[in-house]
User: Fold these one by one.
Assistant:
Number 1:
Amino acid sequence: MNYIPLTEKENKEMLKSIGIKDASELFSVIPSSSRIPALKLPKGMSEQRLVSTLEAMAKKNASLKDYACFRGAGIYDHFIPALVEEIVNRSEFSTAYTPYQPEASQGTLQAIFEYQSLICELTGMDVSNASLYDGSSAMAEAALLAVRATSRKKILVSSASHPEYRQVLRTYLQGTDIEVVEISSKNGFTSLDDARHKLGNDTAAVILQSPNFFGTIEELSSFRALSREYGALLALSVNPISLGALKSPGEIGADIAFGEGQPLGNHTGAGGVTFGFLSVKKELSWKIPGRIVGQTVDSNGRRGFVLTLQSREQHIRRERATSNICTNAALNALAGCVYLAGWGKNGIKNLALANFAKSRYAYERIIRIPGFSPAFEGQQFFNEFAVKTTKDISHLNKKLFAEKIIGPLALSGFYPEMADCALFCVTENRTKSEIDKMAEILERA
Amino acid sequence: MEKLLNEISHEGLSGYSVPEIDVPHENIEKYIHKEALRSSEPELPQVSEPELRRHFTRLSHRNYSLTTHFYPLGSCTMKYNPPVNDKLSQLPGFADLHPYQDEESLQGLLELLYGLERSLCEITGMDAFTLQPAAGAHGEFTGLLIIHAYFKAKGEARTKIIVPDSAHGTNPASAALAGFEIIPVKSKADGCLDLELIEKTLNKDIAAIMLTVPNTLGVFEKEILKISEIAHKNGSLLYYDGANLNAILGNARPGDFGFDIMHVNPHKTFSTPHGGGGPGSGPVGVKKHLEEFLPVPKIEKKEFGYKLHYNIPKSIGRVRSFFGNVPVLIKAYAYILALGAEGLRNVSEQAVLNANYLLSILKKELPAPAGDRCMHEFVLSAKPCAEKGVRALDIAKRLLDYGYYAPTIYFPLIVEEAMMVEPTETESKDELDKFASVFAKILKEAADNPATVKNTPTTTPVSRLNEVEAARKPILKWADAPK
Amino acid sequence: MNVPKELRYMKSHEWAKQEGGKVRVGISDHAQHEITDVVHVELPAVGKKVEQGQPCAVVESVKSAFDIYAPVSGTVVEVNDALSSSPELVNQSPYEKGFFLVIEASNQAEWEKLLPAQDYEKLIG
C-alpha cells in the first residue's frame, strides 16, 4: 500500500521547478555514512492482507464481546450507545488537529466546552480542563497542581487508591524534591488516624479515591475537615458513573476532582486509549494543567469558542508551564461528552442505580457460597466489592474462563497481604443469568 | 450558531435507554450511608437521541479536518489517515479487552505490540522501545526520567539539559518536570546549532542535549555527527525529538547519528489521526545502555508466547496505567505493515519533494530565512507584509476563507512573523499548486487592499474571535455565561 | 509615553514609588503598551520575601508571559487584588489602579540603583 497521490511525471515536473535532477539531491545534507540503503522490514501489504493479518492477531485475544467480564479495578465494561461511536468516528472530528485556528475548529471547541460543562456538573466543581491522558496521569497532575498552589512539597496519598496510579505518581515526581507519603488502609478504608499522624503544615494535598480500589465508599467528610485543619488541598479520584448516585467532590468540599474517563463511553481497549478528567475550584483555575476552552464573541458579536488561559501552557511558558502536556485525549473526551449528554440528569442516576443493584445482587449471591465471605464486613460499595475465599483464586478464574467468564481480580498482585481476597465488578452490562452462572461455577469449584 | 446542549434540554427527556434491571430492585439508601449519597441529580442536559445526533453532526460540520481540507500545519505532519487502520483498531479482539486479563488471553495483542517495538527499533536504529507514553510530550518526559535515572545509577549529578531556542515548548517543559535545569542555547538563523557555542556550553553538569532533526525550520542539522561526538566525549547523552521523523523515514535513522534516546509521534509520522487534540502516543526508544531504565512492564518473547516482565530493578517505573494508548499503537503498526520497507522510504522522499516544490514557488512570495532548500517542511517570514500592516496571523485567517487550514504561525520563535508549512507526502501536485496560487493571491490582496485580508475570515462559522476577553473574563462552562 | 518624573524605573520596565519606607511597584506605560492586552497577573502572597532584581510576579497577555522583577529587596506587604478580576487595569491605569504590589523595603541603599525618569525615557527612546 501507499497513500501517495502523485505520479512519476508530476514528480519530474516538481524536480524541475526546484531546479534539481534527482530527488536524492534533497537528502545530500544527511551525512552519507548515516544513510541506509533499505530498512530491514518486510515488504508492504495489500489492504486485504493487512486486514487478515491483524484479524488473526485479534482472534488470539479473549474479547469481552465473547466473555462476560466481572473484572474492573480501573477499567469497566459498560455499554456504549451506538451514537457515541458514530460521532467519534466522524472524520471531521477524528482527523482534525488541536484547534489552533478557532474559526476553523468551532466543532471541536464547542464540543470541548460542552465536555467541560458536563464534567463540572457531574463533579460539582467550577473549572474543568479539556482532558488529560488517563486517570493515572491525572493523579500526578493533581499532585503537581496542589504543590504549585500551596508552595508545599509533601503529598499524602491513600494506599487504597489505584496501585498503578500511585506508581505513576511516584514516577512523575522522581526528579523533583516532592515527597510522596502513603496513608495506610484498614478494613477496606483509608485510615483517618494514619492520615492525621502524617499530615502537617508542609502537606500540599491529601489524595483519596472513592469508591477506592477495594470498592469501598470512603468517609470523605472527615478527611475534608482534617485537610482543612492543615491548609492542605483535598484531591479526590472518582468513578464518574458512580456520581449519578454518590455525592460529588464539589458537595464534599474537595479542591480537585479527577479520575479515569474510560467508563464514559470508551471501550475497555486493554486499558487505553482512555482519558483523564480533572476539575477544580475557581481559585485554582490559572494553575490547572492542559488545554481549556472558553466562550467568547466574534467580531460580529456572535458566540464562539477559543482555547484560553493559554499563558499557563508549554508553548508560551516553556520550562515554567503548569504542565508539559500538549496532545491530550480530545476524541475520548468527546466520547465522554456524547455519553454524558445522552444519559442526562435522570439517565445517569438510573444507570448508576442499575450498576448498584446488579453488583448488590452479585454480592449477596457470592457471600452465601460456602468458602466465600465479605473481605470487609458491611462494605459499602458502588459496583465493585471485595470477597474473601478459602479457595484458590487463580484456580477459580481458570474455571470461569473455561466457561467464557473473566472472573474477579486477585488482590494479591497489588496487596500481597490480601492473598485470599478477590475484587469483583458488576456493571449494567452483566445480566442476572450471567451472575447466576458465575456463582454456580464458584459453588462447584 | 449551533445551540449549546443546555439550550436544547427539555425536562424529562433522555437520549439513551436504561438497561433492564433483571435483579431485585434495591433501595440504595438501605446500603449506603445517606451522607455519601447525592442530595439531588447532577444538572446534566436532557436531550433526545435524534436531537443529540443532529447537534453533534452539525458541530462536526463546523470543523476543518484532514478529510475535508488541506491542513499544512507545520510540525504536525497532517498526513492522510487510512480508515482501514481505524477499523482494525476497533476489532472486538482489540477494542474490548480488559487490561487485567491473563496474559494467555492477550497473546494477539502482545504479539502486535512486540512486533511494533521491533519495527520501531529497525526504523529508528534504537535497541529497545517502550510503548507506554501517551503522547509526544509524555514520551519526552519519560525519556528525560530515563536520562535522570541513568546518571543517578552512574553516581553522576548532572542536572542540566541543553535545549536550543528553536525547540518545541514541550522540550523545556518536559525537562523541567523531570527536575532538570534548562540551558537554552541560541541557534543560528537556519535553526542549526552553533557548534562552538555548544562546545562552550558543555560541561560536567550537562546531562543531555535535546534536538529536533531536522530542526523546526525544516533544516537538517549538518553538524549532527560532530555534535554527537562532542556530547558523548563530555559524557552527555543525545535526545532526539521525533516530531520531524517524517523527513528521514527509511532513509536515515536517529540511532545511526549517535542519538541515545528518542521518542516518536505515531500521530504524526505513522498516520494515526489526531482526534482534534488527541489521542496521540509517544513510544520511547533507547540504545542498549539505557534499556534497563525503561518503564515496566516490558513485553518479552518466550518460547511459548509473550510475557509481561515487571521485575526490572532500575526501571523508572510506570508512566501510564496499563499498556499505553493501544488503539493508536495498532493503527501505527497497521501503517508500518501496509507500507513496508520501501513504502516508508517513499514517505520521506515524497514529503521532502513536496515541501521543496512548494517552497520553490512560495519563496518568490515571501522570504524563507532558512534558505532555498528544506526537508519535510519550511518556514516563511511574513515580515515584509507585517511592515505594511498585514501580519502572519491575517494571512493565516485569509487562508481559511479559501478553504485551507492555516500553517503553524509564530513558531519557531526565532523567525519573525513565522509561517511554518508542512505539506506531507499525501497531498497531490494539484493541491500544492492550488495552495500556492491562493497564497500568492492573498499576498496580492494584502498589497492592494490590506483590509480584505485583515478583516478575515468571513466564510467560516464565526469571524475573528475575541481571545482577550475570553481570558480576562473566563466563561469555561454553561453556568459561567451571563444570563 | 507617559513617564512620571517622581518615579524610579528598572531596565526591565517596572516602576517604583517611595511611600515612606514602603515601595509601590507596577509596570510602565511603555511596558503595558508593548505587552498589549493584559489578561492575567500572577501575584505573590503577602508576606513573601523578595530580592532586588529577582522575579516577584508574572504579567500575561493572550500569548505571552513576562516576569516582573522586584525593584527593591524586602517583604511584600500588599498586593493589588483588583487585578485578579480586572487585569485590564494594568493597561488602563499603569501607574495608579494597575499597580502590582507594595514592598516593605529592607535596604534603602538599593533605591539608588534604580533609574531616574529621564534615564528611563532615554532607554525606551
Number 2:
Amino acid sequence: MSELTDFGVKRLRDGVRSGEFSAREVADAFIVNVSKAKELNAFLVETPDHALAAAKAADDARGRGDTLAPLAGVPIGMKDLFCTNGVQSAAASHILEGFEPRYESSVSQRLWDAGAGMLGKLNMDQFAMGSSNETSAFGNVVSPWRRTDGGNAPLTPGGSSGGSSAAIAARLCPAATGTDTGGSIRQPASFTGITGIKPTYGRCSRWGVIAFASSLDQAGAMARDVTDCAILLEAMAGFDPKDATSLDAPVPNWEAGLNPSLAGKRVGIPKEYRMDGMSPEIEALWQQGIDWAKDAGAEIVEVSLPHTKYALPAYYIIAPAEASSNLARYDGVRYGQRDLPDGAGLQDMYAATRAAGFGDEVKRRIMIGTYVLSAGFYDAYYTQAQKVRTLIAQDFENAWGLCDLLLTPTAPSAAFGLGETTDPLSMYLNDVFTVPSSLAGLPAMSVPGGLDKQGLPLGLQIIGKAMDEQNVLNAGLALEQRAGFTARPDAWW
Amino acid sequence: MSNYRIQGATGEWEVVIGLEVHAQVTSKAKLFSGASTAFGAEPNTQVSLVDAAMPGMLPVPNRECIRQAVRTGMAINAVINKWSRFDRKNYFYADLPQGYQISQLYHPLVGEGVIEVSLDEKDPEAEVKEIGVERIHVEQDAGKLMHDQHPTRSYVDLNRSGVALMEIVSRPDMRSPQEAGAYLTKLRSILRYVGSCDGNMDQGSMRADVNVSVRKPGGELGTRTETKNVNSVRFVMQAIEQEAQRQVDVLESGGRIVQETRLFDPDKGETRSMRSKEDAHDYRYFPDPDLLPLVLDDAFLDECRATLPELPDAKRRRYEGDLGLPAYNAAVLTADAETARWFEALLAESARIQKKGEAEVAKAASNWLISELFGALNRLGKDIENSPVSPEKGAELLGLVADGTISGSIAKQVLEIMLETGDAPAKIVEEKGLKQTSDTGAIEAEIAKVLEANPDKVADYRGGKDKLFGFFVGQTMKAMQGKANPQVVNELLKKALG
C-alpha cells in the first residue's frame, strides 16, 4: 500500500470515509516513511502512538457507522513551535529541551478534535528564527530535493517551517502545521514544491504556540495542494477567547467554496516587487503566473506598493523587538534548561542559562531587539518601524482599490545549499516578498509554479485582502491547475 | 497646613511630596488570567499557566479589573481614557516570570483627577486642599521571593504574580508629612467606598512609593528620591520626615541629592539607598503585542458610573444638609465607608422603630454612635466592622430611650451588657428591671426625702439660686437608681420647690 503516502489530505479523508482503506493502513504507511527518513532530520520527536490512536478512533467510528470528523484518518506533522500535551515542545531550542507541556495549543487541539493524528514534532529554525532551518539546535533539516547537476549538495528546505516542508515533500506526512512570522510557511513551501497558506492575522489562535513575534506570528496550513490546505486550515482556524488578538469571526467553509475561475477578478502586479538584479528565472516564473491568471479569467493590473523597500528593515526591527521580550521568560527559573555555575547568583544563572540555551541567531535577534527598544534608540528604530508598518498596510489598502488579489514570486531564489548563506543579512533577504503581507496581517499563500534550470521548485505567491482567504485559495487553485506541477524528489534517503 | 518647614542652618526648607500608590484591585481573578487572588493561600496554589509564563501562554484582560479602575477614576473626577493600551516593562527578576510586567506607560486608563484633602477631616474649620492625581494605570503585580526557607536557596511564590494593581500617581502637590498622610487616608477611604481596593496596607494590598525633594520656599524644585513600598500611613509620614531632614542635612553640608530609589526601615525609622539612577534599569517599554488597545464604549462607562456609591464628600454634605448633623458628626461618620454604612443602617432602623423621619432621629443616633458605641469599641479594641452590637440592636436601644422606657444613663448600662452578652436591649431591660418609672407617687416620695435632707439648699433655691435645680434632679435620680423618667422628675420637683 505504499501509494497511500502519495495521497493528500482530501484523498485520504475520502478513502477512509468510503472504506477504500482503513485509517490504520494510512497511519502505518506514513509511520514507516517517517521511520525510514532519519537522514532528512525532519522530525524531532516521532509520535506513532498518537497517530495510531487517532486512526483507531477513526476506524472505530466508521465501524459504528458514525459520521467521521473532518480530518478522521489523516495523520499530520506538527511544527515544534506548537505546545503538545506530554510531548516535547522545544521550538527546536536547547533551552526548552525536554520540556513537555501539560497543555495543548488551541490549534493542535482543534486538529485532534477534527480527528487528525500526530506523526511527530517537526524540526524548524530555532524559535522560528531563520530561513534555512540551519538555526535548529537539533541539526538542520535536509531538503529531499537535489539539484540536477549531480553534485548531491544538501539543500535547505527553507525556514522556519522547514521540517514541515521537507516532510510533506518527502511523503512523510500528507500535511503539516506551519507558522509564519515573515514568510516561514511560504518560503519553505516554495523551496520544496508544496503549497502553504498563512491566513489573516488572528484567524488561528496563538494560544499554546511558542511566541516569536506576537504581532506577526500566525499559524497556517502546509500540504501538497490548495484543496488540502483549505481542508487543514478550516480545521485550524477559529475564534479563541484565550487569545486577545484572535479574530471573532466565523470560519467559512473554504473547501466547499473553492472555485478556480478568476473571471471578474482583478489581479494586481506590484511593480516594486520587480527588483534590481532579480533572477531571470524568477521573472519568467512570475510572467508565467500572470499568464495563467489571465487564462483563468483575471484582469491584470499594475499596482504600486511604494513603501515595499522599507518593509524588510521595519520587519527586522519589530520582530526582534518583540522576540527580545517574548524570550525573556526562558530564564532557567521555572522550566527548561538551567545552567547554575558553582556559587552563582541569580544574574549569573540567567547569563549562563541563556548563553548555553539559545543559539547564535536567537541571541543575535535578542540583542537587536534589546537595542532597538533601549532608551535613546526607541524612537529612531521601533517607533519609526511602526510608522513604516502603518504605511505598508496603507499601501495594500490603496492597492485594493484597484485589484482584488496580488500576484508575486514567493522567494527571490530557489532553495540554496546548506551552509552556502552565512551572512545574516543575505539570509534575511529571503523574506523580501513575504514580509510586507506579514506586516499588514494579510492572508497569503505559495503554490508551486515550476522548476528552475537546476530542477528545483519555485513558488508563486498570492496575497489577498484581510479575511479573504477564499479568494486567495481560489487563485491558488487556478494557478495550480495551470501549472500542473507534478515534480517530486526521488527518494535518496 | 502648608506651613510645614524644616529649620536648617541656612534657613527654612520646604518639602515637596508626590505619592505613587499601588492599590490591589478587588477582583476574584487576576488581571490577565483566571487564577484566584485570595490572600494567604499556600504558596504557588493560585497560579495559572499564564501567571507562570509557560511557553505560548497569552494574557486576556479581566473586565472586572478594568471596571474597578474606571470606577476609581470616576470617584476622583478623573478623565477616563476610552482608548488606552498596555505596555511591557522589561526586566529580569525571579519573581517576574514573564521577564516583563504588563503595565501602562504611554496611554493609561485614567487621566487627570483630583482629591480634596483636609488636614483634619473631623475638623470642619481645617483647611481643604486639592491634591492632583496625574493618572491611574493598571498593571500586574509580581510574585514574592522567600529567602528564609532554605540556607542557600531562595524560593518563589507566584500566588501574587499577575494580580491587578492600580497605580495611582499624585502630582507633587503635598508640602508636609501631614498632608501626605491625609491624602493617603482620604484615598484609602475613597477606594473602600468604591469597593475597588480593600485598602489593607498591612496585607500589602495598598502600598506607597514616596517621592520627596526639598527646596528653599518657593524656589526651584530639588532633586527627588523615591522611597519604595511603604506600607502604612504612619510610615509614609515618618519616611517623609526622615528623608526630608536627611536631604536638608546633605545639602547644608555642601553635598547634593542623588536621584535614587530608597527603602524605609520602620525599625530604625530611616531611609537608605537601594539603587541609584546609574544602576536604574532600562525597562525598554513598548506596547504589548499580545493585547489589543483597550477601547471602552459609552455603555460600559455608564454601567461603571451607575454602580458608583455616594462618595465621602457628597455624603458628608448630605449629612450636614439633609440630616442636619453637626459638621463634626458628619465628618466622623463619613470618613470611613464601613462607619457610614453602619450609621445608615442604624438610622433607617431607628426611623422605622420610632416612626419618624430619618432627619428627626439622626442627631441622637449619630451622637450615640460617636460617643457611646465608638467609645465602647475603642475600649474593646474593635472596629465597627466587628462590633458585637448590630445596627438593628443599636436602633432598638435608641428606641427604648426615645419612648421613655429607659433613660440615657440606663442606656449606657444596657449597652455594656449588650456588648458582653449580645442580648437584645429590651430583654436586658426586662430581666434587670431597668425600666424607667413615671410612677409619680414613688418619685414624689423620694423628692420629699431629698428636700428634707437638704433644707439649706431648698432655702437657697427659693432665695433665687436657680442653678441648684440640677442638684435636686441629680439627687432624685440617684435615689431612684436612675430609673425615674427625667421629665416627670423635673415637673414634680418644680411643683415641690414652688
